[in-house]
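Exercise 7b. C-alpha cells:
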C-alpha cells in the first residue's frame, strides 16, 4: 500500500477544495485522517473497498497509483514522450550466444504503447548512450520513431525537439533516469528498478518489463 496514505490525503483535500460540505463526508474524512494518515494503522480490506467506492476508483488505483501525479499530468496536453532506452525499454542486460552475437530483451507491451501514442498524435523520442546507439537505431526504425539521440547533453537535445515541434515543457513527458530531464519536465517517471530523486512518478514495472506501457496506460491516457 505504498501510495495509500498519499492518495487518501490527496482525495480528501480535492473533495474539500471542490466544496464538499456533506457532514457525513466530513466525519468520514476526519476518521480516515486520524486512523490511517496520522497513525501507523492500515485499513482492513472492507475499509479499502469502502474508501475506493466513496471516491469512485478501484482499490488497485487507491493503493498503487499516484493519483496526485495523474491529476497533474491529465491537465497537461502531452505532445512528446521521451524514453531513455537503456533504463526504460530494457533492464540493462545484454545476452550473448555461442557465436558472440548479442541482443537485449524488449517488451511487446512497450511497442504497443508507442503504437497507441502515435494513434493519439503523441510523438515518441528515444535517448540512449553511445554504446547503445547502433542497436536502438534499428529499434527506432522498426517502431517508426524518427527521433533518436545519443548526445551527451540530453537536455539540449530535448530543447531542440521542442523547438522543432513548437511545444513547451508542459507538453513533454519523460521516462528514464536522467536527473536533468526529470527536473526539466514535470510529467516524468522512473522505472521500478531505478530510484530517481527528481522523478514525479515511481512506476511499478521495471525497465524492459512494460514500464512504458504502464506510464502510458495509467498516466497518459
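Sequence design result:
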Amino acid at each position: 500500500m505504498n501510495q495509500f496514505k498519499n492518495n487518501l490525503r490527496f482525495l480528501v483535500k480535492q473533495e474539500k477544495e471542490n466544496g464538499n460540505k456533506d457532514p457525513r463526508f466530513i466525519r468520514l474524512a476526519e476518521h480516515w485522517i486520524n486512523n490511517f494518515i496520522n497513525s501507523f494503522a492500515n485499513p482492513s480490506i472492507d475499509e479499502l473497498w469502502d474508501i475506493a467506492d466513496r471516491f469512485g476508483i478501484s482499490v488497485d488505483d487507491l493503493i498503487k497509483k499516484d493519483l496526485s501525479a495523474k491529476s497533474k499530468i491529465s491537465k497537461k496536453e502531452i505532445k512528446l514522450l521521451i524514453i531513455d532506452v537503456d533504463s526504460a525499454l530494457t533492464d540493462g542486460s545484454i545476452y550473448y550466444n555461442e557465436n558472440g552475437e548479442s541482443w537485449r530483451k524488449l517488451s511487446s507491451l512497450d511497442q504497443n504503447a508507442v503504437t497507441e501514442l502515435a494513434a493519439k498524435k503523441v510523438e515518441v523520442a528515444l535517448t540512449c548512450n553511445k554504446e547503445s546507439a547502433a542497436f536502438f537505431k534499428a529499434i527506432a526504425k522498426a517502431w517508426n520513431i524518427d527521433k533518436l539521440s545519443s548526445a551527451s547533453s540530453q537536455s539540449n537535445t530535448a530543447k531542440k525537439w521542442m523547438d522543432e515541434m513548437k511545444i513547451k515543457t508542459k507538453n513533454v513527458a519523460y521516462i528514464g533516469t536522467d536527473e536533468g530531464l526529470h527536473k526539466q519536465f514535470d510529467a516524468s517517471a522512473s522505472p521500478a528498478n531505478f530510484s530517481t530523486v527528481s522523478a514525479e512518478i515511481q512506476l511499478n514495472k521495471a525497465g524492459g518489463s512494460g514500464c512504458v506501457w504502464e506510464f502510458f496506460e495509467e498516466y497518459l491516457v
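Instructor comment: The two ends are 23 Å apart (CA to CA). The chain has two domains: 4-65, 73-220.
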